[in-house]
Prior knowledge:
The complex is a heterodimer. Chain A is mainly alpha-helical. Chain A contains 29 helices and four strands.
Amino acid sequence: xxxxxxxxxxxxxxxxxxxxxxxxxxxxxxxxxxxxxxxxxxxxxxxxxxxxxxxxxxxxxxxxxxxxxxxxxxxxxxxxxxxxxxxxxxxxxxxxxxxxxxxxxxxxxxxxxxxxxxxxxxxxxxxxxxxxxxxxxxxxxxxxxxxxxxxxxxxxxxxxxxxxxxxxxxxxxxxxxxxxxxxxxxxxxxxxxxxxxxxxxxxxxxxxxxxxxxxxxxxxxxxxxxxxxxxxxxxxxxxxxxxxxxxxxxxxxxxxxxxxxxxxxxxxxxxxxxxxxxxxxxxxxxxxxxxxxxxxxxxxxxxxxxxxxxxxxxxxxxxxxxxxxxxxxxxxxxxxxxxxxxxxxxxxxxxxxxxxxxxxxxxxxxxxxxxxxxxxxxxxxxxxxxxxxxxxxxxxxxxxxxxxxxxxxxxxxxxxxxxxxxxxxxxxxxxxxxxxxxxxxxxxxxxxxxxxxxxxxxxxxxxxxxxxxxxxxxxxxxxxxxxxxxxxxxxxxxxxxxxxxxxxxxxxxxxxxxxxxxxxxxxxxxxxxxxxxxxxxxxxxxxxxxxxxxxxxxxxxxxxxxxxxxxxxxxxxxxxxxxxxxxxxxxxxxxxxxxxxxxxxxxxxxxxxxxxxxxxxxxxxxxxxxxxxxxxxxxxxxxxxxxxxxxxxxxxxxxxxxxxxxxxxxxxxxxxxxxxxxxxxxxxxxxxxxxxxxxxxxxxxxxxxxxxxxxxxxxxxxxxxxxxxxx
Amino acid sequence: xxxxxxxxxxxxxxxxxxxxxxxxxxxxxxxxxxxxxxxxxxxxxxxxxxxxxxxxxxxxxxxxxxxxxxxxxxxxxxxxxxxxxxxxxxxxxxxxxxxxxxxxxxxxxxxxxxxxxxxxxxxxxxxxxxxxxxxxxxxxxxxxxxxxxxxxxxxxxxxxxxxxxxxxxxxxxxxxxxxxxxxxxxxxxxxxxxxxxxxxxxxxxxxxxxxxxxxxxxxxxxxxxxxxxxxxxxxxxxxxxxxxxxxxxxxxxxxxxxxxxxxxxxxxxxxxxxxxxxxxxxxxxxxxxxxxxxxxxxxxxxxxxxxxxxxxxxxxxxxxxxxxxxxxxxxxxxxxxxxxxxxxxxxxxxxxxxxxxxxxxxxxxxxxxxxxxxxxxxxxxxxxxxxxxxxxxxxxxxxxxxxxxxxxxxxxxxxxxxxxxxxxxxxxxxxxxxxxxxxxxxxxxxxxxxxxxxxxxxxxxxxxxxxxxxxxxxxxxxxxxxxxxxxxxxxxxxxxxxxxxxxxxxxxxxxxxxxxxxxxxxxxxxxxxxxxxxxxxxxxxxxxxxxxxxxxxxxxxxxxxx
Lengths: 727, 562
């Protein structure tokens, strides 16, 4: 393959699934029971293209030694001008052209994510052939899954912040339609609406961040582009700006942009305090949960922060807040997950928690932190998709029942599902040598290196281990060509920067370690409750509860293998980290300077393993081999168990503090509208009626006289006004 | 075959509905089928003519530079110093609204297909006269002609609401008529004042809009105490009519009433085209002719726009009547347009010009769908509706599409305009106002962005209640179950299906095409209008910037003196 121009392949990756979606809708009746065909073929073709892109990209990147700083690799292709407004007519101090090209990009980060999106998407589509079989909405399901793969591929391939916003909302719309897939169930319809609205709060952040970026940098492109008059417009994440250590806004404006990005990421990736939509989203079909609400869409927030790494490292306070939000979410979601009895909800809280890990890692601001987050994103996509599909397989066999108290001992009925689920559970719990062990270890290492910088500096013998030093060096002044200088006058440190201390990261490290133990506990609690103990089947399942068909078990097996070996393989070769380091965003001086050689942290590995072992042992003591419908061992937690079981009352608090007050205000507004505003109008309308009584004697009934009076009156008024103006 | 000149083409397009109205009148004795068929053919022919004219417009190289197209001038009253002409033409400001009026007229006829059985001749004749007036008002290049068409849009709609409306139709029609008339009389006085002012300097009483724009540029209306603040007075007079028409909060209360009582076809034209006349008036008259006054009023109207966004959305949130909810969503969406217009930045004003079309498409589509739901279930009460998606899947698909368009989902048309308006407003707040104004502007711009969340809230709440869930009321009204394209549904083949009929698909599909087209390639629609919009808003924008600079240097001086 000639890799100098991968644009065809890059366009095909989103285009083929889009075509599949359109085909599925258009040929709905012709395809009949084979409505899965376009989706599977289309996403499969996209996967092949994505793998070719990845291998081509990998060849581009290699050739650089491990000890050398990575050279940025990117490729951008512009398809058409989406919308534009000339700068010519713009007034004000800083005229800025508004020009939005539809540009796709390819770099290591995009290539990696494209393979994950299309790969997991393909497995989910194949799995759904069996899972959705016989559902009257089958064509709609496959059309939506294809549309989602299209939108998600575009989201990670877009090279412009406005396009990112477009597909950020587009994946949200696909998610809305898939959560509400069984729309006649009112719980599903409500969950869909809730997901959309909570995400809209996040979108507010992304929209305002986009506005601020445009005002500060004068463009919304990632890449450098050439303006109509031939001048170079440095893109926000383009080579020109990346080479300049002081090209990114710090201070109030920079921090505001980053915090707004964080708000957006919290919405899409279900982080505190906007996580409340994800558990409810489990009303959707399980394969959709697996693809969208576990493996791909919810990682869009991770992608956004990773992509804008240079912006974040210029604002240490905001960056630290990313870590704090992440680690706190990880802990809170894990606590809530320990007492959930709905298998899918356990996994949903687990997803929130694992995404929290990734944010904690991103917030360290070091190259290790960024690559570890993406590494965990990749392994998590494998094992969480696997666990969701396993849960779906259970649900399929149990006649739609997903409450773990109502079944048990299923390993005898569904051996393949049980074995693959166990593989996923081991990976999630972080047991060596499964995938999650390695990626979680890297995240702990990233946090550790910020909390105990000295120890790491010794360890790595003088290498610039502390990313913070480099980050602080960058944190100077914006040198933007536009308005930024006027607005963010001077390098005012944001008060948030006070958060950025080693003590913070030490605390976050310990929180993450506790979360690791909790993760192992709730994971194995679910495994034991579902697959061990006496075999019980709910009556909804009928008398023929059985293992799922091969179309479902084969994707499970593939993901199980990936969950088992991908971590070891990607870690031992260090291929992913090296590859990702060539992503332009990670070659910003402040990020690249924090590069550390790949080391296996024995101390951290032992701590992590001990935490996981503790969780598994406690889960085994409580649940191994017991009937899952008995009294729950967790009740010894007392009021805490109630708190966790009620999801810490987030929904209730939001209802009381936001929804209800707004509804009351709306009722008042409606009352004012009806009686005050409209009442006033009616009152004014009555005045002529009253006057009519007085001047009734003028009423002659001759229309011409009225018209004449009207015209004369009008002319008199106008003449008077004009005369006064001229006189 | 460009056998006839563009001028003839334009006149013919405006005359076509009038000819069709005559034909419908003649066919009146042959029954409702003949009348509605002739009306349908008329609107389709008119749409064909208008579409062709738009293509010819786009093919003409001069138009992109802002030259008017398809001019025709017939002297009307040119004795002595008077110069009134019957003068028509299209330019960037009017092109898309002209096309939209032709498009929505087709929708208006096809949604009335089964709904109107009482006195159909009168109904369709009035609908066609309304179409001619809507086409004419955007093509008029003479103040008198504009005003004649402007008022002429009022009369047919008054009768459409008053005769074919619902329970409270009389009250609604009278309120709508008097409210709008009261405003537009003031507007007319204001326009006359501009004409007289120009006449006093140019010694010719011309009503030609272009001449007036040029004239007021050379001799602007006085904005000083010595001149009696004439420019401000005239601006306020114009504002009275335009603000009622838009409507700008708090002058909006005629709108929900008129919409709720109007027949569906009337609502489609009212929401889709007539509300935009107010904004069109600002762009055509107030902004180029009275730039300093516009600059003075801009912050206040910007604020009223934001108030309309939030207020309209909040009131929509607690409506129990689906049509009222859509009506208040129009109040909220027109708030965005007002805000964007008075942000006076190129990105925002070009967004406004596009959003006029976008809101026309989505609100017309939603009103049409509400009418279809009413025909099936004889209620618009949100609490008694439900589960429509399983009984009428294609109706649900269109409802979702127009809802998504309305809440600004990317990829559809509403997003483009909304995003440009918000971006432009934010740009104004961030770097285009004096420090004294900046905080207020920033708060307003952020509130406007937050309004996007509220907008999604009430629309998706309505969707959840009306389309999703289980049905609460069986369909009534004796239509046969799904036919034609309607029958695609795979959902459980329930006995009580009531999906779209062919004429309803004809009414909605063209709107859906443009919803997608504008969303995917907005540049096609932005480009032809860009020069005209920027020209119309350049003077007030410059005046505003000058005011703000004076303001900030003023405060700087004040700050440095003590």
